[in-house]
Amino acid sequence: MALVITRFEYGGAYQNGFSLTIKFLVAKGVPGDAAEEVAQAAWTRGWERVSQLRKPEQLRTWVNSIALNLYRRALRHDRRMEPLLDMAGGRKMDLAAIDLATVLNACGPSDRLLLIHQLNGFTTKEMARRIGASEGAVRVRLTRARRTARSIGRAMVAA
């Protein structure tokens, strides 16, 4: 039998817990204005999914967890969208100086083959079939090949 929280009980918990959720978020380093928005979103999300709550006495802790996760997700999303205005060390990267053919030629033959396959739009499954390896092996080797190509490109830019 599922324990159900009534609208009245949830409303009371909201009135008592909303400001505490804001304080919780601020204590975790969230700016005050963002903390209020996130707390509101968390309490709303909590009401939408109240049927998933297993222990009604843990409601405020549950909503605080939702709030922290919402904030972290938004923070990760915002970081991906940050413009790259300046480079470390004050150097400006000349994107034209990064020559793809030079980077590929500097890679080993197996790395070069995987990178060319990726550039041509092949999936890991297709690559695995072409080179006779498992998909997992292709993913690992492709990750290493990208890392190698990235370090070669950085060395070219720094030179």
Q: Main β-sheet: number of strands, strand sense, barrel status?
A: none
Q: Give me the count of strands.
A: 0
Mean pLDDT: 83
> Rough shape?
elongated
What would your notes on this structure say?
The protein is mainly alpha-helical and 159 residues long. It has helices spanning 7-27, 32-48, 59-80, 100-106, 109-119, 124-131, 135-158. Helix 6 (124-131) packs across helix 7 (135-158).
Index terms:
single chain; 159 residues; mainly alpha; 7 helices; elongated
Topology:
Layout: H1 7-27, H2 32-48, H3 59-80, H4 100-106, H5 109-119, H6 124-131, H7 135-158
Short description:
By secondary structure, the chain is mainly α.
